[in-house]
UniProtKB/TrEMBL annotation:
Its EC number is 1.6.5.2. The keyword Oxidoreductase applies. Keywords: Oxidoreductase. SUPFAM superfamilies: NAD(P)-binding Rossmann-fold domains. This is SDR family oxidoreductase. The lineage of its organism: Bacteria, Pseudomonadati, Bacteroidota, Cytophagia, Cytophagales. Residues 2-276 form the NmrA-like domain. It is an enzyme of class 1 (oxidoreductase). The keyword Oxidoreductase applies. GO terms for molecular function: NAD(P)H dehydrogenase (quinone) activity.
Amino acid sequence: MHTTILVTGATGTVGREVIKQLSMLEGDEIRVRAGVHSVITGENLKRLPGVEISEMDFENQESLHAAFTHADKLFMVAPFADDQVEMEKTLVDEAKRTGVKHIVKLSSMGADEEPGILLGLWHREIERYIEDSGISYTFLRPTSFMQNYIDYNAASIKQEGKFYQPLGNGKVSYIDARDIAAVGVETLLKEGHVGKIYELTGPEALSNNEVAALLSEVSGKQVAYIDTPEAEAREAMLAQGTPEWMADAMLELYGVYKSGSATKTTTTVEDVTGQKPHTMRQFLEDHREDFA
């Protein structure tokens, strides 16, 4: 008898990696269903062996029901949007309606801190909703992704040899999305993770100046970090079309990093998977072409 795993946000940084790692497993016991906003955006996932694409429209109940039909487990990721809480509650409701047995939710480090920041408050509200649903769960609370350096900084690093962030000299225990996904896969497939909350970090906390030094070594060219004033960073985000609420939420998160409150490291990745998490150097070497 097989187990069907639905992964929402399947084209995102972590969701895509979960799909990839699940698809590499041998045997017919696992069926992987990738929940995507549109079939076109999920086109690349079709190349992975055994992956089924399911279009999900939050305003179309039929599409959600189709995606959840016969799904046994759910890896839940939702986009950072102003209706994120409502979207994830809708997923939980559908999971309960269709008999999903276990939910692994991608949350955020510090989700339970008080008074908390907007992003953390949202995640904790959804966590509580899952707890109250009666469905068994595992919460993954990672720190900032190493992949963000590709998504947000690679262009300026290539063009100028510089990247810009309002973090001062604050250190962050960045984590590779591959390690988050590896923990997610373990919690989806193995016993012993029900009701657990896993705080996930990389093996070290680094400042942007330290990351810039590593980038310089790995890329073979000088890379500099430019500490950007918050007002200037906000103006740049707004100029790029970022909604005001999102710009403010991001600056709130950056403020946590700048204050030195994101330096905590855990051994959870190795404890759960048996493998040490990637270092920043390993990550940058694996993605050298994105920066060189």
